[in-house]
Amino acid sequence: MTELPDIESLQLLVLVGEHRSLTTAAEHVGTTQPAASKRISALERRFGVRLLDRSHTGSTLTSDGRLVCSWAERVIEDVNLLVEGVNALRRERTAQLSLAASLTVAEHLLPTWIGDLRRQVADLHVGLQVLNSTRVCELVRSGEIDLGFIESPRRLRSLRSQIVARDRLVLVVAPGHRWARRRRPVGAAELATTPLISRESGSGTRDTVEQALLATGLTPVEPLLELGSTTAVRSSVATGAGPALLSELVVASDLAAGNLREVATTGIDLHRTLRAVWHTGAAPSGAAAELLALASRAGSSPRTASARDAKSERDRS
Known about the structure:
Layout: H1 7-19, H2 22-29, H3 33-47, E1 52-55, E2 58-61, H4 63-94, E3 97-101, H5 103-108, H6 110-120, E4 126-130, H7 133-142, E5 147-150, E6 159-173, E7 186-187, H8 188-192, E8 197-199, H9 204-215, E9 225-227, H10 230-238, E10 244-247, H11 248-257, E11 261-263, E12 265-266, E13 271-279, H12 286-299, H13 302-316
Helix pairs in contact: 1-2, 1-3, 1-4, 2-3, 6-12
């Protein structure tokens, strides 16, 4: 039976194939050309196959070497997959608090809440998955996570929930868009018939828009673009691809910098609540209960409420 090769030698062989140079391959792995040549020679003896054509102009893979190199690439890929899987298992085993959250909550609210919690609970390890609201609810129902955070207005089957923050969707366009200097607000009917840049189905933001339009008796047209992340939606809007409805939390910095422009809307309620969710059969306990309490206090603090009331007053004026 042929002795198994070491991964480092296989990686060196693959690098020779990529760069068509033993010297360059040696530099990439931090060794000298003579040392790299010895490793390849040892690999050739182990396999009983000549892998390199060596000449005064350099070293290139033989036809057998190219075939072995293609097999080596798959071995290295599988080894990397093994290492990543083991690391994921280790993280899962060591996580004391397992969370999943929609993007808006994960990026703009959870970092502060988790930071506050870590100051209260020494050596706390948090495992966080960032998913759309539908997927977060699925993980909570299956018991795979301790606590979830969502934006979706849909009815929560087999889940209990608690409001942790309030948010508003704003209509945004690029500075050069025809609506950027518009003085008349966009009404619900016009909004429903305008193809928007949108998140994927199952996203809390998209659910909020659809439910808000349905509440006015309108059905939205198909999206202009359907994208899998809020960052992609923001970028597409900024390039002038079209308008979008996005969380005020998400676009605040873009509006302040002038990268996006807010367009006023009328005849539709785009306010929403952000919620923590957990399974009906298992009340949050330990670190999950403490995080829920922190989030709830932050969402109902006088400072937050005052800012929210002031914003609502500006919207009405």
